[in-house]
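Dear support,

I submitted the protein below through the web form. The confirmation email said the job was done, but the results page showed an empty box. After a refresh the structure appeared. I'm attaching both so you can tell me whether what I see now is the final result or a partial one.
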Amino acid sequence: MSVSVTSEGDHQELSLGNFQLESGTTLPDARLAYVTYGTLNETRTNAVLLPSWYGGDHHGYDFLIGPDKAFDPARHFIIATDQFADGLSSSPSNTPPPFAGPDFPQIAIRDNVSATHRLITEVFGIERLAAVVGFSMGAQQALQWAVSHPEMVDAIVAYCGNAKEYPFGIARLEGAKASIMADAAWNNGRYSEPPEIGLRALARHWAAWGSSQEWWRQELFRESGADSIEEWVRNSEDYWLTKDANNLLSQAMTWQTHNVGDTPGFNGDFEAALHSIRARILLMPSATDLYFPPEDAEYESTLIPNAEVLMIPSIWGHRAGIGTNPADVEFLNDAIRQFLE
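What the results page shows now:
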């Protein structure tokens, strides 16, 4: 099968053509954005996949890449991908009618895995990945890879993320979505200008939930230079104001609806799906994560044949996984490198 890859700024894009989604909708001229680091060896056995996370892009794993890091381009061929709706791959913000904006179709985590599978096999000719490593929604993709393509993955590292979204997380994400949708400027997704009030409200939602209660008690926001809670929260708005509201809503729905048990062949049986995994699995929950509580990872580890749990000993909550806190950066790099050696 012929493939088309183009360079776009600091990344490349794979043309997926008319891409069949799990929902049954065909997304025309679908595109998958990605970057690579290092060189694929002659046996094509040194490839590592890093799928993006909510609100992030392919740069979200930069703190794990480099000499003496978890992934050294001198040894690994590193592929960092952008999930659908992140603004680089096919998204509400960059897809023409009839699927523009709020008309963008529902995306499943498995759709991202399916698109990336084409990149891995058709562009690079890779038959087996040395590892898939993911944070948050990237962890959802990593564990889905282990279920969808058990013959293709040697090892999985899923940190600060689970194999499905649990009821508490689904409800919390409803609150996040409502932050945007309550802004009259959102206009049911048909806005002419960004719904700034809604995006600022969303930023405040994430500002509170992203870190642990102990992080707040110790006022670690001051390490960023903020003199008060209000200043730190206000500063966090700058990041979210760069994002498209419909993109964020689409990603949130993908996050909410994920369950590896819905993989074809398992008929919704979550436990059976996890029992089918053949890869070595390292689950790394943050000890204080309010999005993905460590108890969920502990539970999932009992269902996966070859899984181990290593807690990230951090009070940075979910943010332990984004590469901000030096101690967490060191812990993640060391743990991932040792697991994959």
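Response: this is the final, complete result; the empty box was a page-load delay. Strands lie at 4-8, 11-20, 26-37, 47-51, 77-81, 131-135, 155-159, 280-284, 307-309.
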